[in-house]
Each structure stands twice: as structure tokens, then as C-alpha cells.
Specification:
Order of helices and strands: EHEHEHHHEHEHHEHEEHEHEHEHEHEHHH
Strand order of the largest sheet: 3-2-1-4-5-6-7
Helix content: 40-55%
CATH topology of the largest domain: Rossmann fold
CATH architecture of the largest domain: 3-Layer(aba) Sandwich
CATH superfamily of the largest domain: Glycogen Phosphorylase B
Number of domains: 2
Strand content: 5-15%
Structural class: alpha/beta
CATH class of the largest domain: Alpha Beta
Largest sheet: 7 strands, parallel
Length: about 400
């Protein structure tokens, strides 16, 4: 099976450090390990050839793209609205090199598989023109997300592209059940939608966790509350900070470890400084994916303190990593998490936005090693069923079934 894997979002570099980049990278690696022939076509390809075990096509490699980016940088900087329109228009123009790259692939791919982005439509157009099945991966309600948390200038265009992709995709792979209804509301047929969540590398499920969890009886010097992820509003960092303030007043052993970067970093560091907590916290910023396991080994609890959101559509990589690494989980009772990691069975779940409940759950994990051991054992079992190789096997079956259906002679 030959697949053209499109990642046309310039904010998702497959060679990068964020969760989206990790998703792309790990899925590609797992599919290649199954013997699938993949070519990745990326709008942000820097560093990707070094970390992906397959050919990578840089959609911005042409001299015209380089000159256009330079001109945008020089002329659009004075006006925020102008900058936004220029960058959105530039992303639309990348459909041209994407079409050329797809047409140049020899032999032609059996399937075009695209991680949805706001402005990319060439993959669908090429698939329809050449009679190739088109599969769409949906990780978020992109148009709604962009409008709420960032800025969206060409909204009508983005909505039209999204509708085309959902309506005409042969298969729509959503990363959480919460996205099923969203996909259908945008035109996806009931038969087209499948759930394929995020996963965890099998190697993270090595030997059982051996760290000392003796609890208050041993009066450990440090109890590290850890967070891994981007520092963005929808990740509930403010909830974590309020909970940590309560915890540090309760017991001096508490430490905070934040692994990740983003627009809220300066605000986080200011909060810690103003409240006299900066000496008890370590905000390490973005780290190479190969370093994540080392930071997880320092954590005594891993948190995912999501706030109350109108729609919780995440399949959080951090939860899978905590579970696989044997780090007990304290998370919001959001989305699909209660089904995957039931409260008091595989995690401790609190109402979204509740700093007091989060703090109470973390304190329970510090003081009760038996609860901690039971929760981590069960969470690791859940993670074992969601490794990237298992998810790649599911993708392989979905794709193979699609090809058989498309090639079936008419009755």
C-alpha cells in the first residue's frame, strides 16, 4: 500500500516538539514499521527528514515560496489584520505546490491521507481527479478553534474548505468520540467516520515504575507535580497554578515541574514569582521528544487540568504518556477520559476547572501509596492497548477495507 500523507499546516512541523508533531511522527513511524510505503508532504518540513523513516517533500522548498515569504515579512508587519490576511492567503497558495508534488509521485499513491488543516484542499482535488481514495484525519474543530482562540480573517473560505473535505472524504478519522458529531454536522456521512485516538510509544511501557512512593510516613523531601504540554489557555494551566498554591501551603514537599512552552509561559512565570513559588517550580520549556521520558521519571503525579470547555475533543498525548510511564494521573473529568481512565480505577478525576478538587486528589496520591499503586497499574493496562503500533494496525485495516470497497466491480 502506498500512501501520500499530507501535513499542510505550517504550525505542525513533523520534525517539531509539540503534541501535534509527535502525533504525525509516531503514526508515520508505526505505519512504515508495518511495511506501508509512505511519502510525507509537509508545509513545515524542516527537520522532518532526520526523524521520519520515509521520503519527505517540502512544500515550501521552491524559490517562489521563499521570495513570497520574504516579501510578506517585509510589507505586512505594520498591520495585524494585514499580516493575518497575508499569511492565510499564502497558506492557500501552497495548494499549488501540493498539487504538483502529488502529481509528480511515481508510482501514484493508492490513498491520499491528510491531517486536516484550514487552507488545504489540493489533496481532495487530486484524489477526485485521479480516482484515488481520500482519507481525512481530524484532530480538532479547526475553524471553531481558530475563531475562538486565535484569529480568522478568511472565515467563509475556511468554512467552505472544511465542508468540502468532510463531505467528500471517503473516510474521516477523528481522534475522539466528541468529534463524531462535529464531523457529521460538517457534512461527513455516518458510514465514513471512524475513531482513531492518539497513542503512546510501546517502548514507554518498559519495566514497571520503581520510584519511591512511601508517602507521608517516610516524609519524602519532594513530591513533584508534573505537567507536559503546550502552555495554551485550553489546557487549564491557571487551574494547576491555583491548585499548586494550595498544595504548597499544605505541605512544603510539593514541587512543580512544567515541561512545555507556549503563549502563557510569561504569565505562568509571573504568577509563580508574585506568589513566592518560583523557587519551588521548574518551567523547563520545550524539550526534544526523546527527553520527555526523563522528565516523566521525575514526576510523582501527572496532571491534565482542563477547564470547562464548550466541547472537549482532545485525545491528550500527555495522559497516555503519564499512564505508560507509571505516573499516577490527576485530570479533569472531561470528554472521553472517564471512560478510558475511570475515576478511582485508573485515575483521579475532578470537575473541570476545580482547583480545590485537583489539589485534594494530588494530596491523596501523596499520602496514600496503595491508591497510587492501584491507579498506575490500571492506567498502564489502558495504555498498553493504545500503543502506536496497535493504532497503526487499525489504520491499516481501515485503509485496506476502503481500497477493497473502491476496487470492487459494480454489481
Amino acid at each position: 500500500m502506498r500512501i501520500a500523507y499530507i501535513c499542510a499546516d505550517r504550525g505542525v512541523p513533523p520534525g517539531g516538539r509539540g503534541g501535534s508533531a509527535t502525533h504525525v511522527r509516531e503514526m508515520v513511524r508505526a505505519l512504515v514499521a508495518r511495511g506501508i510505503d509512505i511519502t510525507v508532504l509537509a508545509a513545515a518540513a524542516e527537520g522532518a527528514p532526520a526523524v521520519l523513516p520515509c521520503p519527505v517533500v517540502d512544500l515550501q522548498s521552491g524559490p517562489l515560496c521563499a521570495e513570497l515569504r520574504s516579501r510578506i515579512a517585509k510589507t505586512a508587519h505594520a498591520d495585524d489584520e494585514g499580516v493575518r490576511a497575508a499569511h492565510e492567503s499564502y497558506s492557500l497558495l501552497l495548494n499549488d505546490p501540493l498539487t504538483a508534488a502529488l502529481d509528480a509521485m511515481t508510482p501514484a499513491p493508492d490513498i491520499i491521507y491528510e491531517r486536516q488543516s484550514l487552507w488545504s484542499v489540493a489533496g481532495l482535488e487530486t484524489a477526485r481527479r485521479r480516482g484515488i481514495p481520500y482519507m481525512l484525519e481530524v484532530n480538532a474543530p479547526l475553524v471553531e478553534q481558530q475563531r475562538q482562540y486565535r484569529e480568522l480573517g478568511l472565515a467563509a473560505t475556511a468554512e467552505a474548505i472544511e465542508g468540502l473535505l468532510f463531505e467528500h472524504a471517503d473516510r474521516v478519522l477523528v481522534t475522539s468520540p466528541a468529534l463524531i458529531e462535529y464531523a457529521r454536522s460538517r457534512g461527513a456521512s455516518r458510514r465514513a467516520v471512524r475513531v482513531l485516538p492518539c497513542g503512546v510509544p510501546a517502548q514507554m511501557l518498559g519495566a514497571p515504575d520503581k520510584r519511591d512512593r512511601t508517602g507521608v510516613g517516610g516524609e519524602r523531601e519532594r513530591f513533584v507535580v508534573g505537567f507536559v504540554g503546550s502552555l495554551k489557555p485550553w489546557h487549564g494551566i491557571d487551574v494547576l497554578l491555583r491548585a499548586f498554591r494550595k498544595l504548597h501551603r499544605l505541605h512544603m514537599s510539593y514541587r512543580l515541574l512544567i515541561v512545555g512552552d507556549g503563549p502563557l509561559r510569561e504569565e505562568i512565570e509571573r504568577y509563580l514569582r508574585v506568589n513566592g513559588l518560583d523557587v519551588y517550580a521548574d518551567v523547563v520549556g520545550s524539550v526534544d521528544p526523546s527527553e520527555v521520558a526523563r522528565y516523566l521519571s521525575r514526576m510523582d503525579v501527572g496532571v491534565a487540568p482542563y477547564p470547562a470547555l464548550p466541547s472537549f475533543y482532545f485525545s491528550p498525548l500527555k495522559i497516555w504518556e503519564y499512564a505508560a510511564a507509571g505516573v499516577p494521573i490527576a485530570a479533569s473529568e472531561s470528554g472521553d477520559l472517564p471512560r478510558l481512565f475511570p475515576h478511582k480505577v485508573a485515575a483521579l478525576l475532578h470537575p473541570p476547572g476545580s482547583a480545590s478538587k485537583l489539589a485534594a486528589h494530588i494530596e491523596l496520591l501523596r499520602t496514600d501509596p496503595e491508591v497510587t499503586a492501584r491507579l498506575t497499574r490500571r492506567a498502564r493496562q489502558v495504555a498498553r492497548a493504545h500503543t502506536w503500533d496497535r493504532l497503526a494496525a487499525r489504520f491499516d485495516k481501515i485503509a485496506a477495507d476502503l481500497l477493497r470497497t473502491r476496487r470492487r466491480p459494480p454489481q
